[in-house]
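Notebook B, p. 112. Complex prediction, attempt 2.
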Amino acid sequence: MTIGVLGLQGAVREHVKSLDALGVPTRVVKSTADLDGLSGLILPGGESTAIALLGENGVFDRLRRLAAEGLPMFGTCAGMILLARDVEGRAAAPLGAIDITVARNASGRQVHSFETTLAIDGIGDDVPAVFIRAPYITRVGAGVRVLARHAGVPVMATEGRILVASFHPELTEDLRVHRYFVETVCGLRREGERG
Amino acid sequence: MVEKGTYRVKSGLAEMLKGGVIMDVTTAEQARIAETAGAVAVMALERVPADIRAQGGVARMADPTKVREIMDTVSIPVMAKARIGHFVEAQVLEALEVDYIDESEVLTPADPHFHINKWAFTVPFICGARDLGEACRRIAEGAAMIRTKGEPGTGNVIEAVRHMRLMNEQIRAVLDAPEEELMTIGKNLGAPYQILLAIRDAGRLPVVNFAAGGIATPADAAMMMQLGCDGIFVGSGIFKSGDPARRARAIVEATTHYDDAKLIAEVSKGLGEAMPGIEIGTIPEHEMMQTRGK
């Protein structure tokens, strides 16, 4: 049982740290060979334009197939943009694995980045969330369930085995969002949680 | 409740830039080339360091028109430089809503003694450092991201290597020291004690540390990554080279796959002329940029 963290660019080590704290073995994924035998994959925050270019080394071709085959995936911020079916102002979405449309940098420039707490369906009423130049979900497909909203706007959603969030649970000490991905989306039981 | 400008929000953006390349640009056209090549952010400035070095005179914050033009052109974060200690240039850049301010030795310092109080701002700051003491002082002043100073505008990586190795060595000493030695280590480094405690807590520098100052090739970038930095700044190295778009893309690939020598060999092929570069020993002492601000 290993969860991969896409390691082309961005907040890779924070996700690894959160999974470590849950006692989940991890692997940083940079090339197609790193994708074999994973039970799930996290696509971290970073710059989606840079990650989308770097992923054209074959990794994204494999990810499209793996998503279709049902590999559980969790995208935070840039990761959500990569997983979305449509991105406003862009011709093509890199992976198109969840039926939503997202608007990049919808929370504004960095001076408008913020932290808050969210009520997340099935997780808790007081989950800390850090929004950094965050994308928002502007359209939700029929099969998609919205798990959290901020100021009325959907910021976390799931469809099938794909989970996406506008914000960064990996920048906080709170492990509940990662636990939700591992247990509920991936359906894994953890052995010996630490911390 | 919604809180803006917290330290977590400031340092958080730097965390998102890790493993990426930030490129100096002087025009909207260059910014577009940088974004297309996979830059994670651009640094908007009037002249690249190599030109500042060659032309001399007082180097100041860029014209707001230019900064806005670059912000309107790309969707990636835009950083801009303020002079060391020039808190009003910083206020102006914050009002323009740039995403990060570089309080930079590349520009002519505005205050002979003090850096900007970066806690007073909502926008995050990055500062240069040559050793751990300098890095810790800037963090204590509120910097949310650090970079090596290197020697800007030279295309010569030796000073960035010197600063990175020194910082690594000093961090190892802080991590290995028994508790009772920490205060004296702090005194000798000129490093605030609380920041040393944060280093011991994190097992590393508590903020992201990029390499900057003299990086000109994919191999330079990969070497700095192997030395343990979190990402790369390329100043003059891209737009002073023969084929900026190709070189930019190659440096991005080499930064991500920094431990894959075959890939670095592949992307290094036929990049055309690198920037000419300067031997550090030929630079007069008063023209060194890295000694500005302590």
